[in-house]
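Field reference: sequence -> structure
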Amino acid sequence: MKMTRIFAAAIAALGFAGTTLAAEGEQYPPKEHHWHQDGPFGTYDRQAVQRGYQVYQEVCASCHSMDLMRFRNLAQRGGPFEEEAFPNPNDNPIVMQIAASYTRVWDRDEINDDGDPVERAGLPSDPFPAPFPNVQMARASNGGAYPPDLSLIVKARTGGENYIYSLLTGYYDAPEDSHLAPGMYYNPYFAGGAIAMAPPLAEGIIEYADGTEATVEQMAEDVTTFLSWAGDPHMETRKQMGVMVLLFLLIFAILVYLAYRQVWANVKH
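Structure field:
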């Protein structure tokens, strides 16, 4: 009997310790946030996408790449610089100006008289430039942590837009009983509660071209909207196609029913 009590006490102590550790690294569920693109008829907020690109360009692009994005994508449907006057994204003057602001190596095998690779101005067909030339430099510049690519980050994370928004707005002072390693920050929306990325947003760090107040919540919402569009730029077209298919099926069902009534109208049942 005594051994049984000792064994039960040991099991209870282990269970309590496990609960304490789980509570210390507990991950909060994402905040519920309304998104303009939600629902079967939702569309991207064009102004939010444009502001979100500005946030990415001025804040996020220094560490995070978007390898699957090309400059011309910015002028596609729903993009920040979509214009009906330029149906071909490669001809969009804003996109051409953005691309030309970057220099690219024309051909690594072609060198000039000084032995340096020949460079050229960027083109709309070029991909977004990577902030670091290799993984090793990216880790060395971020305390050993590798900044993830943001091309599909909204789709790659459980919770989608709500998770990204919660993460960007979820930095708090660490609890007194927490044990954060040097260079880590407390964010209960991140798995384990400790994240290597410093709070990227602060009040007024950018100035929106449309005059919108750049609060942390506003910037987080805008850049999340931009990343959502970047990960699924054909969402609006897909939703419109779905509505058209449903309408077709409804009309077809009505016609089939009327034909059925007409064929069997004179038949006794």
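Note: The radius of gyration is 27 Å.
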